[in-house]
Amino acid sequence: MKFLLLLSVAFLAFVHAKEMGTRTYKGYQVFTVKVTNPAQFEVVKSLYDSDEYDFWTTPRKLGATDIMAAPEQIKQLGKIFAENGMQFVVKVKDVGNLILEEQASNKRSSDGRISWTAYPSFAEIRDWLTSIDSPIAEVSTIGYTHENRPIFVVKFSTGGAPKKSILIDANIHAREWIAGATATWIINELVTNPDPYADILAQVDIYIIPMVNADGFEWSRARDRMWRKTRSIRSGSSCIGCDPNRNFAFMFGGEGTSPDPCSNTYTGAGPFSEPETAAIRDFVVARESEGVKFYAYMTFHSYSQLWLLPWGYTQGVYPPDYAEQLSLGQASIAALEAVHGTAYQTGQGADILYGVGGASDDWAKDHGIKYTATIEMRDTEEGYGFILPADQIIPNAEEVWAGLLVVFQRVIETPV
Ligand code: 0X9
Ligand code: ZN
Ligand code: ZN
Known about the structure:
Blueprint: H1 2-17, E1 29-35, H2 38-50, E2 54-55, E3 63-69, H3 74-83, E4 88-92, H4 95-109, H5 122-129, E5 137-144, E6 150-156, E7 164-170, H6 177-192, H7 198-201, E8 204-209, H8 214-222, H9 275-289, E9 294-302, E10 306-309, H10 322-340, E11 345-348, H11 349-352, H12 360-367, E12 371-377, H13 393-413
Parallel strand pairs: 7-8, 7-9, 9-12, 10-11
Antiparallel strand pairs: 1-3, 1-4, 2-3, 5-6, 6-8, 10-12
Helix pairs in contact: 6-13, 10-13
Bound molecules: N~2~-sulfamoyl-L-arginine (0X9) and zinc ion (2 copies).
């Protein structure tokens, strides 16, 4: 009995070790594996569904998928690749070293105030947002995270009756730092340099939620760089949080999701169980009840340089207006590429990647918002994935902004 008790104490200590201290990722590696046929895709998909590895990118039908392996998993993963004739390269030799380098460079270039030469913290974002003073920008709170951080929205409008509206959100996923950094850059661009956008703002209202998952983001900054989920607590499990991009009500629990609270793609207890996703839904519904009509919903993620179109929940299924989605996606990535030469790919989300249910983009499309896209920003296959060097924040933001301006123009041209 005493022994059993000791054993269970030891087990609990082991389980909770993940939640204590800082995860270093020392000796972890990231592999880029190439899928060249459906059989190889099945292998990658089954690894994803097994939940034994942290997938840095959602499995891709044809092409590269990035998978992180713990030191004790490296051999096994290499064996699986070899047995299935899959080509792979080591993308990151030691994730722990990469994280240390990132911390050092972020410290060097940050002076405690927001800038886009370092990744801003939530405190920097909050202090800056609440100090914005602009005749066209209005900052408010749409809700609070599990740990009670405010979820901000910035509304850009020249006033009068509601215009055709556009909604942008960022950092649904904690470790995708470039998403929030880009959203804040865009807010700053509109606040400090509004003149070039006067024609656009005469015809549309733009709402930007720059940091959806602030709890997860701060956890990723302070304790676990690779944290993806929210930070909610559930009874009966020692695992924390759910994947907010599996927590929306459309195709909840479908492909690419997990009912296991310890999974990185855990759906959550039910649709909109998380305060962060419920806040987005409530915000959309409340604006609509005031006469606002949203024509576009763009959600910022990273990485792989993809402009993903509906539907994303399963391959081969398209909304009736898919031709318009595709023409807009293609025009957007062309404008994006013209800025710094960065190549993107566009297409139906689940045709390019693996299908995922409960995602924000499909929820918005199903809700009646015409143009939706998940934008997976830099980095590329050759880069370091989530650990995008801070000197790419501004060029990334500039090019994404060019792509978005095409979306705004299309919304303006869309019949009421
Ligand atoms: O898997 C996801 O949630 C997104 N990729 S990420 O690497 N940022 O996690 C892709 C979601 C695309 N949208 C749909 N498939 N609906
Ligand atoms: Zn509605
Ligand atoms: Zn994401």
